[in-house]
Amino acid sequence: MSSKAVLAVLLAVACSSAMAEWVEIGGDETITIYVDPATIHRQGNRAKMWDLGDFKTAEKSDDKSYLSVRQQQEYDCKGKRLRVLRATCHAKNMGKGETICSNNKPRHWEPVLPVSFDESMWEIACKKR
Fold first, then answer.
1. How many angstroms separate the CA atoms of 31 and 57, rounded?
2. How many domains does the chain have?
3. 94 is in which domain, residue-wise?
4. Chain segment 5-17, per-residue pLDDT in tens
5. Single pTM value for the model
6. Residue 84 is part of a domain; what is its CATH number?
């Protein structure tokens, strides 16, 4: 990939996180969960959406601290399953600061557990509310 292409990708990611309209869906004593409904893309029985986990205290990855995680998840609206498609950990809250970790390898499908943050996000992405 050329340096111009890499720069374009980095700029697009930076702009998308800066322009995200995060909507809080819940939290507990350790984390607040947000979704960006503007990123919902549906195709058939599947939907994709970006979410953000904002930690109250720092988490660790390879001895580096981070305070937030942005991830794109895919939802199986009919089968009530989900999987993370890509994720990044950030040094600061709300997806800001240095990228501490990154994973662009889709994970395995998992069931959506009842009465969970995942179920709330599945409902939003699949418009079940």
1. 8
2. 1
3. 21-126
4. 333 333 344 444 4
5. 0.81
6. 2.40.128.710
pLDDT digits (tens, 9 = 90+) for 36-84: 999 999 999 999 999 999 999 999 988 899 999 999 999 999 999 999 9
Tell me how far apart the alpha carbons of residues 92 and 100 are, in angstroms, rounded to a whole number: 10
Beta strands in the chain (DSSP E): 23-27, 31-43, 46-61, 64-76, 81-90, 99-103, 110-111
Is 113 within the bounds of a domain?
Answer: yes
Write the CA distances from 19 to 13, 60, 95, 122, integer angstroms. Answer: 10, 26, 11, 22
Please tell me the distance from the alpha carbon of residue 116 to that of residue 62, in angstroms, as a whole number.
28
CA distance 125 to 48: 7
